[in-house]
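question for whoever is on the cluster today: can someone run the full assembly for these? two chains, 756 residues total. i dont have access anymore since they changed the login thing
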Amino acid sequence: MIEKGKISALQMGLLMYHAILATGILFIPATVFNVAKQDIWISPILASPLGFLSVYIAYKLNKYYPKDTIMQYSKHILGTFWGKMLGLLLLLLLITSLSVMFWQYGEYVVSEFLPHTPKSVIIGMMVILCAFAVHGGLEVLGRLAGMVFPVFFLLFLVIIILVLPDVEVKRMLPVMENGLMPSLKGAWVLCTWFAQFGIIYFFLPFLTDREKGLKFGMLSVLVVTLTLVVTNIIVIWLFGNVTENFNAPFMSASRYISLAEFLSHLESIVMAIWIAGTFIKLCVFYYVVVIGTAEWLNLSDYRSLVLPMGFLIGVFAMQAFLNSAEAAEHFRIVSHEIMDTLVYGLLIPIFLFLGAYIRKTIFKHKVRRTN
Amino acid sequence: MRRAIMIGVIFMAFVLLTGCWDRRETNDLAIITGVALDKNKEGQIELTAEIHSPGGSGNGSGGGEDNNQGGVQSTVLQIGKGSSIPEAIENLNEKLPREILWSHAEAIVISKAFAENGISDELDFFVRHPEPRLRSYVFISDGKAKENMALRPSLERSVSEALIKLAESEVLMKATLFDLMEMLKGEQGAIVLPMIDKLSPEEGQLPSESIAYIHRSAVLKQGKMIGVINDQISRGVLWFRNEINESIVTVEPDEADEIISMNLIKGRTDLVPEIDGQSLKMTVKIVTIDDVIQNQTSWDLKRLDKLKALENELVQKIEKRLTDTLDTVQKEMKIDIIGFGEEFRRHHPKKWKNIKGDWDEKFPTVQVDFDIDARVLRAGKGSET
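^ ran it for u. tokens below:
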């Protein structure tokens, strides 16, 4: 096995929590609001089954091939050539996905906080930081997630509590004004986030307590769902119809806080949460890309790939889009029409799972016959 | 080698972590505390910025009329002109040696002439720009907005501070930028904003020593100002919107010719809409708790029957005020600034879809019932006279 380190199932759950939620917490309320209006808090609940399914499929595949990641068992299932081709497709999807995430990070920091700083510096520094963490290996990532999560969660709660004096519950009424359809459409948008849970297939082989993998995977989906529901409810209670005016409603909510005239301008707290969470998210995907490539190339160590991959991704991220319209076009096509996360998170695993299922049953038949 | 790299990295961090591209030193900033928006005769936007002046020694303002009378003056005025707000700001920037910081601009005063031409497009700037705050208070001024900014209030350090305090005291209408956005986004786009007037100066006072105060409210529809309501009607509107916080109610019982004044401790309004076929009905449920603060009548308020009678008077008084409000708002102006439409939408979403289209015609026909529960808790310390 290429990865020598091991993480606990809990650490895996935390890694996944950040990997999904870090960007979501800022952008999900506004994106979903466009279709679901005041019912945005229902959408995460409707979309969560997809997350559970992704985790379950990944877990099932891991049961068949306990010591392998997807790169290896795709070869076992489809044969070397098709397995490699599928692996290549997966890697390409993940590398574009990761580059876009780095771009998103840079774009947001530049537009909201540091307008005069060159984006290459912001992205470059994050790439270097992530490269250090990924170079440290999976155990380091697991520990980092364990460290960041309590801070993340605490600050999240602080923001929620401080927003409470300004909320008005009646802004979420009427519930389901136009039936279930708007929230279902919102759920469809959310699927792109929940499907990312599929990349758990890269972590399951490296667990110390494998039997708990499913439990903590599911728990992670559950906590992500709850966090999203709470965020969306708070946003809608606070902003109601005005939500659509903000790119990042949760950030605007923190700006809106003003307690006793001196406790205000708390957006730096949200920024801290967000940067910490995004750092973990980027590390997770960075690690997945690096270890996937190493396994795809049958290398003996993945660490030598960290820096070159970082350069590649950094350049991709800086050159990704010229302006926000191009980015919007990209998201429309890739995230909503092709649904790339759904492809690598759910469709490929399901396809492999069916293959594995057929193979194992046929293989079993053979075994029985020889007996 | 390895150590050399590590040291190199640490030193790089020192250089990079300073964030040199986006540094903003306080002494390079012009902190805007209030903004006034006017339209001049050529149709250009005039943006008057009230800028905090460090050290209180800034009497060298360029465009503002200031005559440094009201003690140490802590703000200076500067005007920028342009065909849009960003252009006006650019123009303002040319005249300022420092970089503008918007995040403390907490009072936005819009002139009546400006508001009559529509404010929704211009508001976009304040929403999109990352610095201005959603909690900034918005006012409409009767005359030129910049004239209000040129006043020198004696109690507060600057006009905007005085305006903010006025709005926060919640005696009359207050509206933040966020409230304004919400009203704009609402079903009807009906907006009420506090309106400030200049108090005519007392004898012996300089004109600039007068103060701006809120005593009316401006009514806007789809972002355009269409009318004004007085303070009594404004309070009625506050009752309907469940925003009443501070109020003195004075009743004059029929049997006694003198008056009793009460201080409102708590007032809560619930609107209960009903749709019955074609007819729309709204029940206004009010619970209010009051304390007596002045009793000029001969009533002994320690007696239960008198207290009950007083409570009845109070109910009638509130009902009268609300009916007056309805007469103005519903029958005369025919504009839903009291949030009936929202309530119908929230309680009867399905039926609302049918009436939404011709709400403007339907709104004046809504039948309103009152269900007022007034309680007088304390009769005050003074004994009967």
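summary bc i know u wont read the tokens: Chain A has 13 helices and two strands. Chain A touches chain B at residues 111-118, 121, 125, 170, 173-174, 177, 239-242, 245, 252, 255-256, 258, 264-265 (CB under 8 Å).
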